[in-house]
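FIELD: query
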Amino acid sequence: MRTILPALLLAAAAPAPAAPAVAPAAPPAHVLNRIAALVNGEPITLRDLQLRAGPEWARVQAMPEGADRDHAEARALQGAYQALLADKLLQGQVKELGLEATDAEVDAAIDDIKKKNRLDDAGFDRALAAEGLTREQLRARVRGDLESMRVVQVRIRSKLKVGDDDLKNYYQQHLREFAAGTEVHVRHIFLPLAADAPAAEEARVKAQGEALLQRLAAGADFAQLAREASKGPSASDGGDLGWLRRGVVQPEVEKAAFGLAAGRVSGLVRTRNGYQILKVEGRRGGEPRPFDQVKDEIRDKLTYEQGDVLRQQYVAELKKDAVVELRLPELKEP
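FIELD: result
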């Protein structure tokens, strides 16, 4: 189900090897239930934020103490807070609209997650551990995602407009996406940046990426530049990711890589992990599948993308009417 994407699904699509199965570090017992914020009178605790931050919180706790760790902690907490704030606002309308999810629907959604990620029970538990989640915590998150998405669908359904012309135009402009069995040989330069990084940090890393693009345009060797500048695990191999097929990397990376001709370099590609610059060394594979075979895929994709934009707009409207009290200093804007 494309409408529910817990961190487990996102992690499964990441290009780098999976992180070790480390649960978020628990803070001392006396601050576990500290109230971080009140949203329309309902509390969000510090522990709620840490659990939502998942492996990002565990990564931050492993950093040496100091200003960098303090800033990273604040970014992780702010990102988790924004996600939980949206959840709270949407959940406030679930009962009013009678959109509660049943246990059977939650079970079906979790089975769908396991199926799409090709996970047996043991692999599923390992993936959950890597995200710092128990099965019950995942069930609660999936239930909330199902219910929140239903609220959004009810509120924005009339605004969703994906017509046949939209489908045909997308198909004609993205034929390479539908080539059966196509693979691309990709190198990349990876510049890490949290999804919720402050604007100043975003600008700094983006400027670094643009400087690298200028060097590439001036004739710098991509592999050598990757060895010098990339922060990914493949840096020592000149950023070589090997031959990639569809469905194994993040959607943003897949879209950019499969849209490039052999020998071409992408612009800056923003993902949830940071910025990437891609180079396609070669392509191999077949011809595009017929439009009639892929039009439903295109409809799902365009509907999802349009719905995601409308969801953000709807949540922004709910925020305007919400009574929010921030009690954790890290959540306040600098």
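FIELD: remark
Residues 20 and 130 are 6 Å apart (CA to CA).
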